[in-house]
Amino acid sequence: LAYCVVQFIEKDSSLTPQVFDALLKFWPRTCSSKEVMFLGEVEEILDIIEPEQFKKIIDPLFRQLAKCVSSPHFQVAERALYFWNNEYILSLIEDTSAQVMPIMFPALYRISKEHWNQTIVALVYNVLKTFMEMNGKLFDELTSTYKMERQKERKREKDREDLWKRLEQLELNPPDANNPPRIFPNTPLTQFIQVR
């Protein structure tokens, strides 16, 4: 079937986006061996794709690849990262690095710090190094943006934890029954929490 799809696209390359949409629509979610098989089929298609058709599928393709690279199943992540070992695919990525890097960077950076499998971490470092060599300026921008986003995320998490602590404290020390708080329809809950 994969061979037929490749032959089909070779005959009429304008159908590439529709073929990719169908592949992504039926992408396996729970079976990692099928996911590895789908990645193999995608790579076969990318081997014969024309640059103009590649530009049309960048967004959905690399969003799916980012999910695959983030997979806790090491074979899925490894198979997705091997796309960067294919010279033709790498040349397509290099020509469109301004579109590809912002999609892939957050997943790659997170995995470089958190993935349990050291082989995957090493492959991710190779991909990040390739991105740095392709477009160093964009790489630096994406790095600083990612770090700022992570700081904001940590602050939101800390604020959420603080709010829960204050709510628990409020539950332990209920308000005075003789003087209950007045609640108005559009007043945020945080208005009633006293800072000590």
From TrEMBL:
<dbReference type="InterPro" id="IPR011989">
    <property type="entry name" value="ARM-like"/>
</dbReference>
<comment type="similarity">
    <text>Belongs to the phosphatase 2A regulatory subunit B56 family.</text>
</comment>
<dbReference type="GO" id="GO:0007165">
    <property type="term" value="P:signal transduction"/>
</dbReference>
<protein>
    <submittedName>
        <fullName>PPP2R5C</fullName>
    </submittedName>
</protein>
<dbReference type="GO" id="GO:0005634">
    <property type="term" value="C:nucleus"/>
</dbReference>
<dbReference type="GO" id="GO:0072542">
    <property type="term" value="F:protein phosphatase activator activity"/>
</dbReference>
<dbReference type="GO" id="GO:0005829">
    <property type="term" value="C:cytosol"/>
</dbReference>
<dbReference type="InterPro" id="IPR016024">
    <property type="entry name" value="ARM-type_fold"/>
</dbReference>
<dbReference type="GO" id="GO:0000159">
    <property type="term" value="C:protein phosphatase type 2A complex"/>
</dbReference>
<dbReference type="InterPro" id="IPR002554">
    <property type="entry name" value="PP2A_B56"/>
</dbReference>
<dbReference type="Pfam" id="PF01603">
    <property type="entry name" value="B56"/>
</dbReference>
